[in-house]
Amino acid sequence: MNRENKRKTFEKGYYRTHACSDSFTCRVCGRLVTPQSAGTDHRNHCPNCLSSLHVDIEPGDRASDCGGIMEPAAVWVRRGGEWAIIHRCRRCGGLSSNRIAADDNPMKLMSIAMRPLSAPPFPIERIEEMTRRMGGDGEMNW
Question: How many other C-beta atoms are found inside a 10 Å radius of the C-beta of residue 10?
Answer without folding.
Answer: 12
